[in-house]
Amino acid sequence: MTVDIVALGVAGLAHALESGKATSTTATETYLKRIEDQNSDLNAFIKVTTKSALREAEAADQRRADGNVLSALDGIPIALKDNIDVAGIPTTGGVEAYRRATPEHDADVVRRLREAGAIFLGKLNMHEAAHGATTANDAYGYCQNPHKDGYTPGGSSGGSGAALAAGLCAGALGSDTLGSVRIPASFCGIAGLKPTYGLVSTRGVMPLSYALDHVGPMARSCKDLTLMLSAMAGFDADDPAGRHGPTDFSSALEASPSLDGLTLGYFNDLNKINGDTVDSAVYVAYAKSIDQLRELGAKLEPVGWDGYDPALVRPKAMLLIEADLANIHSDALDSNPDGFTETFRAGIEFGRAQSAPKLAKAMRLIEQVRPVARRLFGTVDALVTPTTPVPAFSFEAAMPKTITTFTAFANYAGCPALSVPMGKTEDGLPLGLQVVTPKREEATALRIGTAFENASGI
């Protein structure tokens, strides 16, 4: 019987490799062929590492034959957002100026995945320097949403979302500063997790905002995310943001399909939270999702964000981000101004112009979100929201200013946040459900997400 490699995802392929129904070489060749056939239309990959991927796959098959399997990820083909360092391969960050910027060392998260035996297929397209949510990249080309040509896959990890939705890899990595893992997950109909701040090292990842950056796994299911996160997580003493936390998330895989005993908070007025019109399809799918979670045994409680106004904090976060961009990219901008788009140059110049007191005030306002989260999670085990207020939109349309309303809260608070598919619009565009939990409670988020996936069948 022929095995459908792409349909298996990470966990299914791991089982197929273990049972001898597939080899890593066959799986890698399958994904490389799909990339060859489809990437010219999708533009999800900036760089495909065919030769090294095949070498890594052959080595994984030999380890398995010798009885030396490294982990559940051994021999699984994945891809990396192109702001994550792989030694000897340029890290562009989606920026023209860095087209030939080649690191000497792997990012810490790449080192961990390499030690787990993962196969690296290449580097994925992204919004320029991760500074945007559409992956409309003028240097490397716009990345297309596999569900509708001419529509954004989200961003800034748009290449990761598009590659997964199109079946070009089993798993992928993205980075998330205000929602850049979860927005593409929502728009592309896949699963994505932003972990607790510092749980997964960002050392060796091109920064956007030191205080808000996270690296997270993206895949076809929560089970896949669980296996990936287990390989990625771990304290990195050389990462200034490094935090101790759990590295074993197997309880999410072993949990009962029932959500009995959990209290989940939800919003009964999305427009009050969003401050703008939420798409009607999001309203309908969210209401159905709340009913589904209730049927799974969870207690649903209406909650609010008392003390937190997304519209007030959002511009302060952007101020900090652009100040960090000025610190990170000023030298490159001065030496090669044509290597950056006009929009990005304007952002850096804005960051350069900000005063220290203004930046300190902005940081203080963001820090006030943390006690809001503590109070919220003193009453509920998790918060469930739409991931985005709208589905994917045309590149010709303006990006809604409220695109990060539901996602950014978890970045400010440093909490884990998961996006899973919760349905589609009438014309087939995916929608996402977000699950936010207290710090270091990734297993709870993955438990909820897994139960929802299994029950909804989406």
State the gist of this model:
The chain is α/β, with parallel strands linked by helices. Among the domains are: 5-253, Amidase signature (AS) domain (Amidase signature (AS) enzymes), CATH 3.90.1300; 310-367, no CATH class.
Task: Give a description of the structure.
By secondary structure, the chain is α/β, with parallel strands linked by helices. The model has no long low-confidence stretch (mean pLDDT 96). The longest helix is centred in the last third of the chain and has 26 residues. The chain is globular and about 60 Å long. Helix 7 packs antiparallel against helix 16. An 11-stranded mixed β-sheet has the order 1-3-2-4-6-5-10-11-9-7-8, sandwiched between helices. The two termini are 26 Å apart. Among the domains are: 249 residues, Amidase signature (AS) enzymes; 58 residues, no CATH class.
CATH topology (level 3) name of the domain at 5-253? Amidase signature (AS) enzymes
Radius of gyration: 21 Å
Mean pLDDT: 96
Largest sheet: 11 strands, mixed
CATH architecture of the domain at 5-253: Alpha-Beta Complex
Strand content: 5-15%
Regarding CATH, which class of the domain at 5-253? Answer: Alpha Beta
Show unreliable segments.
none
Shape: globular
State the end-to-end distance. Answer: 26 Å
By DSSP (H or I, 4+ residues per run), the number of helices equals 16
The computed structural class is alpha/beta
User: Reading side by side through the largest sheet, how are the strands ordered?
Assistant: 1-3-2-4-6-5-10-11-9-7-8
Q: Helicity range of the residues?
A: 40-55%
Give me the CATH superfamily of the domain at 5-253. Answer: Amidase signature (AS) domain
Which series of helices and strands comes N to C?
HHEHEHEHEHEEHHEHHEHHHHEHEEH
Number of extended strands: 11
